[in-house]
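Researcher: I'd like a candidate sequence for this fold, 312 residues long. If you have to choose between options at a position, lean toward the conservative one.
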């Protein structure tokens, strides 16, 4: 038992050190570009990687559901990492660029992208895990209980909405549309359901259920798994930023360099993985993290959803 505790502690320290080194290198890389400020990435790190995970842990005591054991963690982890490498380049980079060209208008583009995400981020990973011995009923089980997860759903959900209301631009963009109460009464729940599938289910199945669970089994350390899964979660976005100019949405140059893409994916995107990683580690509730992921993206996502389905 003491040896196991020491192993978990060492694995956690090494993983945290690796993440800190990668994060520091990313800040250094971003500092070489004009107009860079430390305030945005450090603020994101403090809120998303420290404050919100601590809140989540405080609200999820005695909330864990156990998963069936992973008997071949090394093989499963290598399979998942191989799939993620292929996915990040073929889908997030090349695939979405092809979709943008073939379907330049919404809502057709959004529908095709959702179908592509459900196929490559849910269906194929579930099939891969099925081949490794994990049935679909295990991989996609929601494990959501109001008694065990209600406090976290309300507490973390309210915190996320307040955070987006105060520091995000979603409300300002929504107010600029001047939508009436009747329109908002259907557009808000519709956007929430769409985001729950398009972002919540797709990303959480792939990165938390698929990757983080295998990392935790292989390393025998939940903390190490959260750190490394968050790092991979960020890095998986780099090919898309680099290959298809997704950085345009972030106010950066139209032709980002590889250095900028990797640095931005770690410094800005990866901290979000800590909140959902901590929730998954604590609860193993796919339903909980899908709903909270949807709440995270709801306010900034309502206006784009409305414009996509209302002809711009």
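Model: Candidate sequence:
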């Amino acid at each position: 038992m003491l040896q196991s505790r020491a192993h978990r502690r060492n694995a956690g320290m090494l993983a945290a050190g690796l993440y800190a080194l990668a994060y520091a290198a990313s800040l250094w890389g971003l500092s070489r570009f004009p107009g860079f400020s430390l305030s945005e990435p450090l603020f994101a790190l403090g809120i998303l990687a420290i404050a919100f995970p601590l809140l989540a842990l405080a609200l999820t005591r005695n909330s864990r559901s156990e998963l069936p054991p992973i008997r071949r963690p090394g093989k499963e982890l290598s399979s998942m990492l191989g799939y993620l490498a292929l996915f990040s380049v073929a889908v997030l980079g090349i695939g979405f660029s092809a979709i943008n060209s073939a379907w330049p208008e919404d809502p057709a583009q959004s529908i095709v992208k959702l179908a592509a995400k459900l196929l490559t981020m849910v269906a194929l990973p579930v099939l891969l895990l099925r081949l490794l011995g994990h049935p679909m009923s295990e991989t996609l089980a929601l494990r959501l209980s109001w008694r065990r997860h209600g406090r976290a759903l309300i507490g973390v959900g309210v915190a996320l909405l307040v955070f987006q209301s105060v520091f995000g631009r979603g409300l300002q963009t929504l107010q600029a549309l001047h939508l009436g109460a009747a329109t908002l009464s259907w557009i808000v729940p519709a956007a929430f359901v769409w985001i729950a599938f398009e972002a919540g289910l797709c990303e959480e199945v792939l990165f938390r259920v698929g990757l983080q669970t295998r990392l935790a089994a292989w390393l025998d350390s939940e903390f190490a798994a959260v750190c490394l899964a968050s790092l991979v979660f960020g890095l998986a976005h780099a090919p898309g930023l680099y290959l298809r100019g997704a950085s345009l949405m972030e106010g950066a140059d139209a032709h980002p360099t590889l250095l900028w893409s990797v640095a931005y994916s770690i410094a800005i995107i990866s901290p979000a993985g800590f909140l959902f990683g901590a929730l998954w580690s604590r609860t193993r509730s796919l339903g909980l993290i899908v709903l909270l992921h949807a709440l995270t993206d709801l306010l900034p996502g309502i206006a784009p959803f409305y414009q996509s389905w209302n002809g711009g």
